Amino acid sequence: MDQVREHMEVIGADGVHVGTVDKVEGGRIKLTKKDSGEGSHEGHHHFIPGGLVAGVEGDKVRLSANGDVAVTFEEEA
């Protein structure tokens, strides 16, 4: 988590875009609002638990779960 920086792309283990880092807060990755989804989720910050981070590769944060699974772990503010 020490290598995770603002504006890095968050991708699943399968390479699918999950979101963009707003900042690290409380051991979780806070995603930008533009990646918040649609409907009732729109306009809210979402968080990815730090335990899902598999590694940092250049300007990308790779998660240990595929993108479609990782979004199910997202938490709202």
UniProtKB/TrEMBL annotation:
Superkingdom classification of source: Bacteria
Region ranges (Disordered): 32-51
Pfam families: DUF2171 (PF09939)
Sequence ranges of Basic and acidic residues compositional bias: 32-42
InterPro entries per UniProt: DUF2171 (IPR018684)
Protein's name in the database: DUF2171 domain-containing protein
Organism: Glacieibacterium frigidum
Top-level taxonomy: Bacteria, Pseudomonadati, Pseudomonadota, Alphaproteobacteria, Sphingomonadales
